[in-house]
Amino acid sequence: MSSLKKKVEQFGITRRGLLKSSPVALGGAGLLASGLLPGAGAQALTASHSTPDFDALVRAQLEGTTIRCGFTPPILSEFFNIMEHACFRQAHNYSERFGVNWEWQRASPSGNFDSIEGQYNIIQNWVTSGLDAIFICTAGSPSDTAKIYSVAAENGVDIIQFNMPVSLWPIEEQKAVTSVGYHDTLQSGYVAGKYIADQLGGQGKVLQIWGPSGSPWSEARQLGFDMVLAENPGLQVVGKADGGYVRDKGFAAAQNLLTSNPDVNAVYGENEEMALGASQAIDALGMRHWDGQGGIITIGADGLQSGFEAIRQGRLSATISVGGVGQGLTMMEMLMSHRFMGKVVADVNNVPVTLVTKDNVDQTEALQAWALGAEAL
Question: Which of 137, 171, 311, 356 is least enclosed by beta carbons within 10 angstroms?
Fold first, then answer.
């Protein structure tokens, strides 16, 4: 039995759930096959069969159409800004190719990841105003979202979720058109834990700076980290605290834990803001950052421009870039495919993620800089 199959069975991740996930590589076969991005293979196919130009046919159907979208993350932050700008980049691509226009609205609750009711009020207002599509990342579970998503569908509005830990819930309970994201358990929690285990040779003391109790992202990433702990009994978690997903709370939580556990070998910040807060706490306490031989490892997850600079400086050991650019591009592709192209889309579309270290930080940052350079809609 393969290692992955064992992990899947051990932690109750269903085979059907994994098969519903459809990785889409940037500029790769998934996007080319959809017919929504140009490529040499698509051009060669057109030439060999002497078929009409694909873009011209789509333009004839859609030119002059205004597509009205709403974008609502749980908070406005650097992470979601990257994703939104990737949406802009793809939208401009479609405007150039197909002659479509865009109307874009952005709204978020008061900055609290748990402000579920506030997000649903935003969605209700957008449904009433007749948007074509709503992109949402929310802490709500399928039981929380089923009613408002159903109302949206009844009014002809496409709900597309993004960056959600949908592997936690039965696929049949999810009422969105599709969920675009990554597998928080296998592509984040497990990857981060494996990095720590590999660097430390499977032996060492670890601190966890985690999201708020009840957070579905925390739950999913913990499952992946627990897989690594089961595989490496020499790794010991000696402290865990709530960092609130923000840097200042991550700093305070890490400073308290580091003071009580000065001999730790690694700090796993569940997201990058908390990991960067832990890095600041290491500096404040006069401790040593990991240099490949000794010091304290720090790792997070998101993939922020500020985190990339900390990696270059040796103040953050690594992070997991969870495909912010890929998610933004794919969200727009799913909208065009489902609503305007008559295509059947998968319930879940997981994008590739990147374990970012000094070895590949420049390439990863360059991709995000490309997305961030897109003009807002």
Answer: 171
